[in-house]
Amino acid sequence: MYASIKRFFFLFDPEKIHYFTFKLIKTTLSIPGMKALWKKWFVLEDKRLERELFGLKFKNPVGLAAGFDKNGKLFNDLEYTGFGFIEVGTVTPKAQDGNPKKRLFRLVEDEAIINRMGFNNDGLEALVEELKNRKTKLIIGGNIGKNKITPNENAVDDYVKCFEALYQYVDYFVVNVSSPNTPNLRELQDKEPLTALLITLKKLNASKSVQRPILLKIAPDLTDEQLDDIIDIVATTKIDGIIATNTTIDRSNLKTKNVESIGAGGLSGKPLTKRSTEVVRYLHKNSNASFPIIGVGGIHSAEDALEKFEAGASLVQLYTGFIYEGPKLIKKINEALLKS
């Protein structure tokens, strides 16, 4: 059934259909009995799927990556699609429009997406208001970033503002310095500024009565030397884990013709499967499994997810695979985990 729905959706502009889908899900789940039906179709509950990580208990190890529910409009409803946890954001202190449209592109032949959204979001205050209406018991993560107009030398201030505002509403934080769509943002992945940023957030966290886990989301385009720096940074700052990986700027081996005409942006989906798994494996092996890793990138099947777990991931996240394969993918992954 989802294949037919997808064919129809793919006839329209991807960004417009994204928000139309939100309205459709909310409307559908408001129909009496529909939540129970979706739960029967998509949700697999089993104690063996539960994971304890960062002091948190995850219902199952398959989560929704940041970027899908940027403004926290749908996290309560997404519980009925089978996810074990949801990550909202990326959020910035001030609302921003992001990059000019058109900025979201499907590469159907490659089962991929290119986006250059540019941290478009409604801002911190709007996200907090949505999180105040939290009904789901699922773990909720907050993915935080900086505003485009904030210079890198002042970036720490933006991340601190996000941390303070979201602290009582989310269960963990993700520091996003790896999006390719905000000018110069990836420069914050360099060892010195990244260490300073994470130490600041750790000190702020330590001042709270309850500490929230802090994770770092990294790009798949880092060299082995840079990945070694990431391992050192985790050891130095004592953050709680890594999310590997964000989207890639690499365009090699794509089937889609004239992809250069799309222009800049981060590539996600199947072309990222191998590289993101390589990054997970490298970090896991070369750190001697000293910190948890959430694997994300190119998960379009249960086999893709199992490869991430085999490489050393403790949890996985979906985005593009969720769009191409539908909510049944979550259940398939959890079924495969029970059989493995």
Descriptive terms for the model:
single chain, alpha/beta, TIM Barrel, 38% helix, dihydroorotate dehydrogenase (quinone) activity, Dihydroorotate_DH_2
Domains (count): 1
Report how far apart the termini are.
Answer: 27 Å
Radius of gyration: 19 Å
What is the overall pLDDT average? 96
Strand content: 15-25%
Named at the architecture level, the CATH assignment is: Alpha-Beta Barrel
The geometry reads as: globular
Q: Assign the CATH superfamily.
A: Aldolase class I
Order of helices and strands: HHHEEEHEEEHEHEHEHEEHEHEHH
Subcellular location: Cell membrane; Membrane
Cofactor: FMN
EC number: 1.3.5.2
Family: Belongs to the dihydroorotate dehydrogenase family. Type 2 subfamily.
Protein architecture, described:
The chain has twelve helices and 13 strands. The strands form three sheets. It has an eight-stranded parallel barrel with strand order 3-4-7-8-9-10-12-13, surrounded by five helices. A three-stranded antiparallel beta sheet has the order 5-6-11. A two-stranded antiparallel ribbon has the order 1-2. The protein is of the alpha/beta class and 340 residues long. The longest helix is centred in the N-terminal third of the chain and has 16 residues, at 14-29. α7 (191-206) packs parallel to α8, α9 packs parallel to α10 (302-311) and α10 (302-311) crosses α12. It has one domain (2-339): TIM Barrel.
Structure described in brief:
By secondary structure, the protein is an alpha/beta fold. The protein has helices at 2-9, 14-29, 34-42, 75-78, 124-131, 155-166, 191-206, 224-237, 273-286, 302-311, 320-325, 328-339, and strands at residues 51-53, 56-58, 62-64, 85-91, 104-107, 112-115, 139-144, 172-176, 214-218, 241-244, 266-269, 293-296, 315-318.
